[in-house]
Amino acid sequence: MNLAPIILFVYKRPLHTLQTLVSLQHNHLSKQSLLYIFADAPKEDATEDELKAIAEVKKIIWTQQWCREIRLIERKQNFGLVKNIVDGVTNVVQQHGKVIVLEDDIVTSPGFLTYMNQALNLYASNPVVMQVSGHLPPVILNKKNPDTFFFKKTACWGWGTWAHAWAKLNLDPQYLLNEINSLDKVSAFNIDDSYNFIEHLEANIEGRMNTWAIRWQASVFLEDGLCLYPKKSLTRNIGFDGSGEHCTYSKLYLTQPMATSVEVVKVELTESDEARKKIATFNNQQWQSISFIQKVKSRLKRWIK
């Protein structure tokens, strides 16, 4: 099998980094895989404790041979999460044509790399498929359906992509917002008004947030791209203990079970209606981030048209 390189982004969470590396090492293809690790530099105002944590992360990287080969890229100045990820993914995917991406709080199941590589190889020549996700929100899908399905939303908790897809990334949140508004697709972007993703774009424009994932999500959405998902999650986000840059505490994700393996076979290149409905229901139950008035306005607008 032609294996994709793995990228791991780390900073100042040694315990999370260790758990992520240990789980990666337990993957069936880890001993055959190339691992790039991008370690960000301290901020200018970093505290003594933060400097110690950053140094501890770098020590952990060399304690074991986590994969066949490890290439550590140490930033000379603080990039921040957005620049670090965009620059790292761009450089590696341009060199190798495809990539698997992890952050320091993503624990993987033993079958994660197998699933990712099989999917990246299987759909490499389908430009409409723009991402492979290793994570699925905690929803239960029909057991009779295939182990994988397509959904028109990207994911960032263990994912992969190709150079031709990543080239579509647009980092201008104002442009992305304008395009979604002009196409009257705010409701669809918000997964049928179940979560206020559009507000994340607005927050990036106003400087209240600085995130890469929503820009990637919007870029793929505007291309009408598909993301392949497993029917059962192969990753778990352990950053919801309150330590993550954009994560607060959530037992729901910290305890989410993972599948040991997922069968990858070609499925129809269309979004799963079942998955969309169940994920929208999950969003409504968990987040309720779009007000009732916003939903009514959106539905009235569609009805009038």
Write the CATH fold name: Spore Coat Polysaccharide Biosynthesis Protein SpsA, Chain A
Largest sheet: 8 strands, mixed
- Order of SSEs, N→C? EHEHEHEEHEEEHHHHHEEHHH
- N→C terminal distance: 50 Å
In the CATH scheme, the class would be: Alpha Beta
CATH architecture verdict: Alpha-Beta Complex
Number of helical regions: 12
Instruction: Tally the beta strands.
Output: 10
Oligomeric form: single chain
- The averaged pLDDT comes out at 93
- The domain count comes to 1
What would you give as the CATH superfamily?
A: Spore Coat Polysaccharide Biosynthesis Protein SpsA, Chain A
Indicate the proportion of strand residues: 15-25%
Q: In terms of per-residue confidence, which ranges show pLDDT below 50 for 5 or more consecutive residues?
A: 244-249, 298-305
Global outline: globular
Q: Which percent bin holds the helix content?
A: 40-55%
Strand order of the largest sheet: 3-2-1-4-8-6-9-7
Radius of gyration: 19 Å
Keywords: Transferase
Protein name: Sugar transferase
InterPro entries: Nucleotide-diphossugar_trans (IPR029044)
GO molecular function: transferase activity
Itemize the secondary structure elements and their pairings.
Layout: E1 6-10, H1 14-25, E2 34-39, H2 48-61, E3 69-74, H3 80-96, E4 98-103, E5 106-108, H4 112-122, E6 129-133, E7 148-151, E8 159-162, H5 163-166, H6 173-182, H7 186-189, H8 197-206, H9 213-222, E9 226-230, E10 235-237, H10 251-254, H11 273-286, H12 292-304
Parallel strand pairs: 1-2, 1-4, 2-3, 6-9
Antiparallel strand pairs: 4-8, 5-10, 6-8, 7-9
